[in-house]
Structures are given as C-alpha cells and as structure tokens.
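README, section 4: Worked example with a bound small molecule

Sections 1 through 3 covered apo chains. Here we extend the same pipeline to holo records, where the ligand is supplied as SMILES alongside the sequence. The molecule in this example is zinc ion. Nothing else about the input changes; the structure line simply encodes the ligand pose together with the chain.
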Amino acid sequence: MRKIFNTSAVLILILIVAALTLSGCLRNAGDGSGANESKSDGASALNTEANSNQVESPGESGEPTTTTEPATAEPSTSAPDTEASSQTEPPANPSSIPEGDYVPKVMMYHLILDEVYSYENLFVRPSEFEAQLTMIDERKMEYMFANDWHKTAVPSVIITLDDGYEDNYTEMFPILKAHGARATIFVVTDLIGTDGYLTEEQIREMSDSGLVSIQCHTAHHNDLSYQSAEALREDFSSSISRLESITGKPVTALAYPAGSYNDTVVAVAAEFFTYAYTTKSPSNTPQHTNLTIPRYAVPRGCGYYENFLN
Ligand SMILES: [Zn+2]
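The generated complex, written as structure tokens:
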C-alpha cells in the first residue's frame, strides 16, 4: 500500500514536473518568437526615429545661422533666423537719404592707429581720421553704409574699413560716435577673436549701435581670382552666416580681398551680394557695376583728402 502510494506519488511528481517543463518550453518558445518580434519592432522603431532624426538634422544644419552657432544648443536653433528677420530692415538699410544724382564718395581704410606694425599706409592716425570726419561734417555730407549704395540727392560718403582690426573698435568707434558718423567694416571671419582683430562682442556692440554696418571680406582672405566657383560659394555662404549670426542683420555687401576679382568671382558674388567693392580708384573707373564699386584708398598722412570729397 505504502509502496503503491510511493510509486503513484513518484509518478504524479514526474507528471507534474513533465507538465511544468513542457509548459515552460512552450512559454519560452512563445516568448522567444515574441521577443524576436518585439525586438524587431523595437529596432524598426529606433530606426524610424534615427531616420527621422537624420532627415531633420540636415535641414537644421543646412540653416546658415545655426551651423555657426557655437554650442547654444537646440532651443535657440530657430531664434537667430527670427532675430535676423525681425531686425533686418531698419538698422541695416537706413536709406533715409533720397535718391539723386550724387555718386557717394567711397573711402577705404584698414587700421586707425598711431602705432605702425606693418605696411605704413594702412595705418591712418586717429587724429587724421577725426579731421577727415570733420571735413565731411563741414560739407554737410551724408554718411551711408556700403550695403546701401545708391546715388543720392545730397553729397554723400561711405566710410569703409577692411579686415576687421581691433583698433576699429578701440580707436575708430569712439571717433565715429563723437561725430554721429557711420562706417562699414568688412570683416574676415576667420580672424574674428584672433590677436589684433575684433572680437564677436566688439562686432555686435558696434553693429547694435546703428553706426557700424558689418559686411563681408570673406572667411579666409584668399585671392578670390584663383578660387573655383564651388570654393567661392562655400566661402561666401559660411562667412555670411557667421556674420549674420553675430549681428542678427543681413550681410549683402562684399569687399574683394586685396581687390582681386575676375568674371567668375563677380558672377558668384552676384548670387550672394547686392554690392561688392574693389580697391580700384574711382578716379580711374568712372564706369562700374554694383559689384565692382571703386574706393578711394586713404593713406597715412593723406594730404589730399579734400580732393576725394570734391
Ligand atoms: Zn583685406
């Protein structure tokens, strides 16, 4: 009796264990396939996310102002564009000066500094610069920006400074403010914040003052006449983006580095800019287009500035 019980108990035990094992196997098999399915579902979901991210990110990085934004992260991604468009019109295009017959006198400077550390003629003394603005003021000429070139109803002048040297902020800007004058700085974006050149903060402050227009002098200051059209486009779009992200204002004028250009350069410049400036003298170039505007080079110790204004 006891033996039978034991035997049947063992049998029952075996049956229970077998049943449990079987159901366990079945469950595992089911889980397994389920896991595979859900895994593949999960994978495809991740892929979809990844894909959609990939689809979005080129669009984001394709926006000129966001690529050059330092690391201000996503929240501000669309902000620069909004700012740019909202600030656009009034400060950067102050064409309150009516159209007329006077051709603006365009002056070209580089450094406004007593100390000379390279080619002397690039260094106009601050006292000279001040005296030149006084001459302009005495003649009641209107100051315009390089990105607003047009023939005017009254005599007008466009002060330009190339390269973006730091003295444009430390020396030139205070004089400009004292005279309520306006100037355009053609900035080389690769040089921003490097030794001897303007910082982003200085550029922004001058731009915000409404007295200084920040325009393009390319990213690398290469001789453009040796660049492919593709390289030119890359340079123009990256330098424009950088400047616009700093000032929040449109960049529509270019100064050709070292005044060097050819037909290709002008054609590509036309895709990006409304105005481009050379280093040719207006005295020798009566005929020009908006993309080959000549300028008077103002040297150190210039004794004939009045001639430029007449
Ligand atoms: Zn230059």
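What to look for in the output: Residues 162-163, 217, 221, 257 surround zinc ion (CB under 6 Å). The longest strand covers residues 156-163.

Section 5 describes how to batch many such records.
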